[in-house]
Recover the amino acids of this structure.
């Protein structure tokens, strides 16, 4: 048989095709490896950065007096500090006067009467007493806090402190509205011979001078 009649050997062509398929398979495998290793690392990198919000984050340090969720300013505590024994005193005034406590706020004694005190709690003793009714007037444009007000009474030349009866005593409310008045009633145990020399004090706050009334029962 002549050389022109021989059939070409397909072996080299099949070998090249197998090589191409093998290389393609390797390339696909490498791509999958890169996808599984590189992509998770990139997506999780932000959570490791300082200040980044990760799963379960969202907590923050508590603040006071800041802004609320609706963008408005949160109210701050406006209650004045409570009065204390070291609070300075204003010069004494008569029972018929209405001295200023702070700007826009005055206090006066509506009545100071001799009464009989009624014991109700342990330690109280029924006997002569003085009933003091005071009125606070708020002429300012905003409510005024009265929650720290303390009213005391002393009698005689020695300024003996008088105990308060629970029965008949009704302290000032927590606040007084703008343009309004608020009353407080206090019943003190005072012997009859002490009714002619009384010293009634109105303590508003530790940094406000104590208002002092002096006089006798009517």
């Amino acid at each position: 048989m002549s050389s022109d009649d021989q059939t070409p050997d397909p072996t080299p062509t099949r070998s090249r095709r197998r090589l191409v398929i093998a290389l393609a398979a390797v390339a696909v495998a490498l791509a999958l490896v890169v996808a599984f290793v590189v992509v998770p690392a990139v997506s999780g990198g932000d959570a490791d950065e300082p200040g980044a919000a990760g799963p379960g984050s969202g907590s923050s340090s508590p603040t006071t007096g800041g802004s609320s969720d609706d963008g408005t300013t949160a109210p701050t505590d406006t209650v004045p500090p409570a009065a204390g024994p070291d609070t300075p005193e204003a010069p004494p005034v008569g029972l018929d006067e209405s001295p200023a406590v702070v700007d826009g706020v005055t206090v006066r004694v509506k009545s100071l009467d001799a009464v009989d005190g009624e014991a109700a709690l342990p330690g109280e003793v029924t006997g002569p007493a003085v009933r003091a009714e005071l009125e606070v007037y708020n002429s300012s444009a905003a409510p005024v806090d009265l929650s720290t007000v303390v009213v005391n009474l002393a009698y005689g030349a020695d300024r003996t402190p008088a105990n308060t009866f629970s029965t008949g005593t009704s302290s000032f409310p927590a606040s007084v509205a703008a343009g309004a008045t608020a009353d407080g009633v206090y019943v003190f145990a005072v012997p009859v011979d002490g009714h002619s020399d009384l010293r009634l004090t109105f303590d508003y706050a530790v940094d406000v001078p104590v208002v002092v009334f002096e006089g006798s029962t009517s």
User: Anything to note?
Assistant: Residues 30 and 96 are 100 Å apart (CA to CA).
